[in-house]
Write a structure and sequence with these properties.
mainly alpha, 3 helices, RNaseH_sf, nucleic acid binding, Transposase_IS3/IS150/IS904
Length: 73
């Protein structure tokens, strides 16, 4: 772990972690990744022939999610 933290420090990256026992810090990302899995992966697992195809599909999903989907607030 110390080596990992040293590499982060060398690249001026701030490590971000939830406080011990506080899952609420992470709930927004957990919600997003759960939604992404439900919408683009479950039921489609065998459509991706390679990791590159999966990566491309994820990039397309992110573009859709960030720019095109209808957002109700």
């Amino acid at each position: 772990m110390a080596q990992y933290q040293q590499i982060l420090k060398e690249h001026k990256i701030v490590q971000s972690m939830s406080r011990k026992g506080s899952c609420l810090d992470n709930c927004i990302m957990e919600n997003f990744f759960g939604r992404m899995r439900n919408e683009m992966f479950y039921g489609h697992e065998y459509e991706f022939k390679s990791l590159d195809e999966l990566k491309k599909a994820m990039e397309e999903y992110l573009a859709y999610y960030n720019t095109e989907q209808i957002q109700v607030r």
